[in-house]
Structure formats: C-alpha cells, structure tokens
C-alpha cells in the first residue's frame, strides 16, 4: 500500500527522502542517487543506466557505480534479473527496501504520538474523576484506572461512565468500573510493552 501511494503520486518520495535524510542515515550524494531512482520509478521504469545516472549525480561513472553498489549493501535498494519477452534477461532495480525504511519511521512516529496522547488521557481522566468526586483517588482507584487503559477503554467511554455515576449519585471508581464493563463490546487487550508504559506513568502519578 505504501509503495502504491508513492508510485501513484499520493506521497512525494523526493520530499520524504529529504525530510527523513537524517533518520535514514543518508549522505548528500546518496540522497541525490535515491531521488534520481525514485524519478525513474515514477515514470514506471525499473532499469537504470549507470552512465546516465552519473550525469545526474555529476560524478564519474566508476564513482556512481560504487555508490549504487553501496546503496544495495546498505539496504536502500535491491536488484534482480528479470526475463524479457525475447527470452533475454535484464537487471532491474527496486526501491522497496527504502520504502520499508520510511514506512518504519512513519510507524514509529505514529506510535509515539499515540503514547503521548494516551499519557495525556490518563492524567486527564484522573483529574476529571477527582473533580467529579471531589476527593483524591486512592492507590486502589489508580490501579483500577490503569487497568481501563491497559484494556483500551477510551477517554470518551470513561467520561460517559462518570456522567452515569453522577446521575446515579455514585461516587466510587468501582462503580465506574461496573458501568464501563456493562457494555457488550469488550475492549481488546494491549501488548506487554504498552502495559509497561502505562504502569510507569501510573507510578509517576502516585
């Protein structure tokens, strides 16, 4: 899907390479080479002439060939032999390894943003409950709240549960827990890494 979005022009690979140059660990000549190859991909071409490429990079043919080989060795592109209609073979290249590296950067950034938002939601929920119940929460209460986020209950669900509790004049976290679990749609479990991150934040709040 990521490759398809690039090939169809929904993502500008040239801007992505420049933007993530540092995270990708690329030098200036490597950026130019990958960008030149990306241009060929956009034109639906998967073959390259080292001689033509050397003119784009303003490097010698031998230096360009070395740089191309280094990019393969470093895992930014790969090549393979493809059978032509006349029965002969031709060498084609692919930027799939580069696309995977950029995709991994995106996924890391998205996960980091999710963790930041969840940390913020936990603090918000604790403060909201303390304000609604007009008291500080106990360690037991905090453990129960931690469990809600471990099980992926959302901030909106918890806010709704607070409203239900106040409407019934029930000001306990245990009652909130019963309200949340009364829904037929049970939340999914998170992985151990996520649980550990939530545990760390909760210890800091205590």
From TrEMBL:
<dbReference type="Pfam" id="PF07261">
    <property type="entry name" value="DnaB_2"/>
</dbReference>
<dbReference type="Pfam" id="PF21984">
    <property type="entry name" value="DnaD_N"/>
</dbReference>
<dbReference type="InterPro" id="IPR006343">
    <property type="entry name" value="DnaB/C_C"/>
</dbReference>
<comment type="similarity">
    <text>Belongs to the DnaB/DnaD family.</text>
</comment>
<dbReference type="InterPro" id="IPR034829">
    <property type="entry name" value="DnaD-like_sf"/>
</dbReference>
<dbReference type="InterPro" id="IPR053843">
    <property type="entry name" value="DnaD_N"/>
</dbReference>
<feature type="domain" description="DnaD N-terminal">
    <location>
        <begin position="13"/>
        <end position="112"/>
    </location>
</feature>
<feature type="domain" description="DnaB/C C-terminal">
    <location>
        <begin position="126"/>
        <end position="182"/>
    </location>
</feature>
<dbReference type="InterPro" id="IPR036388">
    <property type="entry name" value="WH-like_DNA-bd_sf"/>
</dbReference>
<protein>
    <submittedName>
        <fullName>DnaD domain protein</fullName>
    </submittedName>
</protein>
